Every structure is written in structure tokens, then in C-alpha cells.
Amino acid sequence: xxxxxxxxxxxxxPDLDVPGIKAKIDTGARTxxxxxxxxxxxxxxxxxxxxxxxxxxxxxxxxCLRQGQARVKAFREVKDSGGHIEKRPFIETRVxxxxxxxxxxxxxxxxxxxxxxxxxxxxxxxxxxxVNPAKSYLVGKNLSxxxxxxxx
Length: 152
Known about the structure:
The protein is an all-beta fold.
């Protein structure tokens, strides 16, 4: 039986030290995306591609900042909701929603002008959930309290 979730949920990204971020559940999008204020691609000593990035997981909290890095799984062209094509790095990381946890593939881009810092698309849902578009936060409680005031 699939878990029912709302069109927006609080999730965490344990591998990236993100204890809480609001995610839009977007069945119209194929891929998932995470807001990064900036990112830099580099190669490790084995010449594998990696990305180093900065993100602000809470839109209204500019004092809350996370630095992360992850191995790049792929670089792909993505068409955004405005029809613009952008080549983005994709990473794989764990996502947690309530008591459920799974691996998700995320592209990284600047979503400063967007309402949600994270979007979970069809591939990220992996046939685990039934999305109720009339409801919000059915599984994930507000996780913003996990950040301390003034935390960087």
C-alpha cells in the first residue's frame, strides 16, 4: 500500500546536513531539483567529477546556510518550467520524509526566484506515494525548528 502525501511536504537530506527543507511534490516534473545559491564542479584525485555547493534551505532565513559536496552522477540538459534549457549536475543522496528514507537523484540549480527550494519529481517518488493535490504536509512535519537562530 502506498503512503498518501500532500502536494508539499517537509523533508530532510541527511547526507547533505539539511535537517529540513520544504519540497513541492511535482508529478508534472520528471526529475527532482535542489536549490543551490552557487556551485562549482571539480575533479577528485581519481579524476571523478564532484560538485561543491552552497544552499539556503529556508527561504525566509538568510542566516541559515549549508555547504556541501557530492559526487556528480551525470551532467544532463534540463528544460525548466519557462522552457529554458540548462546543463545541470545531478547528484544522488538520501531523502527522508517522515519515517521513510530512500535514495534520490537531484539536479542542482539556482531556484532563488521560485517558491520552493526543492522539487521532487516523478522519478524521485519511485511509485512509493499517492499524491493528494488538495492536502499539504500529511507526512512531514515542520522541520525549520531544527535550525538554530544565527546558525551558519
